Amino acid sequence: MTASTNGNTAVARHSVVIIGGGFGGLYAARALRHAPVDVTVVDRVKHHLFQPMLYQAATGALSEGDIAPPIRDVLRRQRNTEVLWGDVTDIDLESREVVFETIGRSERVSYDSLVVAPGAGASYLGHNGFAIHAPALKTIEDAFELRGRVFRAFEMAELERRSERRDPLLTFVIVGAGATGVELAGQLAELSRHGLKRNFRGFNPQDARVILLDRADAVLPTWPERLQRRARQYLQRLGVEVRLHSTATGIDADGVDVTHQDGSTDRIQAYTKVWAGGVQASPLGRILARQSDTTSDRSGRISVRPDLTLPGYPEVFVVGDLMSLKRLPASAEVAKQSGRHAARTIKRRVKGHSDDRQFRYHDRLAVVSVARFRAVARIGGLRVAGSVAWLMWFAVHLVRLTRFKHRLSALAKWTAMAFRRKRRQRAGDRHDLAADGEPVARSESGQSQRRLTG
Ligand SMILES: Cc1cc2nc3c(=O)[nH]c(=O)nc-3n(C[C@H](O)[C@H](O)[C@H](O)COP(=O)(O)OP(=O)(O)OC[C@H]3O[C@@H](n4cnc5c(N)ncnc54)[C@H](O)[C@@H]3O)c2cc1C
Question: What is the pTM for the complete model shown?
Answer without folding.
Answer: 0.89
